[in-house]
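Chapter summary example.
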Amino acid sequence: MGMAEKTIQNLSQSSLQDFVDCPRRFELRYLKKLNYPAAQTEPILENEKHMQEGAQFHRLVHEHLLGMPVEKLHLLANTPKLRRWFENYLNADLRLADYTLHPEFTLSAPLGNLRLVAKYDLVAVQKNEGTRGASQVIILDWKTYRRRPRDEWLATRLQTRVYRSLLVQSGAYLNEGVPFKPEQLEMIYWFADFPNEPARFKYDATLFNRDWETLAKLTEEIVSAAEYPKTEELIRCSYCPFRSYCERGSQAGAYEALESEMEAEELFDIHFEQIGEIAF
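The structure predicted for these 280 residues follows.
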């Protein structure tokens, strides 16, 4: 049994992305479970506020999808940015009237000797009238980026590849026991500050097979790795909270430069390795 198998049971898009970006960061965060010793970006307080507002926006949308009255939710949108984001969301035409909505939904599936876990902001399933199963399924993910990233960058992110392939692999629970076909699936990133510029990604069997094979290969690399080398892309180190362990600087990079250099990568994430195994 490898070191990774002894230390973690679940993999998420966040942990896989860390491994791809910098195996050393993956090791420090998920295997050695070290505390974050350094700030990710400057200015620290402004960035922390943005992260908190982003998390609060996700909660507002979740409560709205669960049926909480908009009037009460408006009271919770207590900053100008939150009010702008929430109004943009309420005014957006997401065209989900005839879909069954599953907000904040978690799926998992075996992946090699570990388990792949993902928590979706929203899975929307359109019923196929007269037959068993769905006609279409949409993955919606809310983003509070400061700038709108390129679709080409989003397409390569592990989140896009994990969320789509895992729903095909393990989503029959949401579809009367019938597995979703890749061609039925679309993933949409909706940007709170760019409400009319969503990023849409269709799917097909070729992409699914490619993605699942890639994820299985990454898992095997993680489990069998004898060492976890540092990234050669030193720009990443300026925004890594573990940089002091690698002696790669003490000063955090500015978040404006982060979004310029790294395509507006999200500055907060949820580590699903901290939750128990979930199976459907």
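To summarize the output: The CA atoms of residues 13 and 48 lie 22 Å apart.
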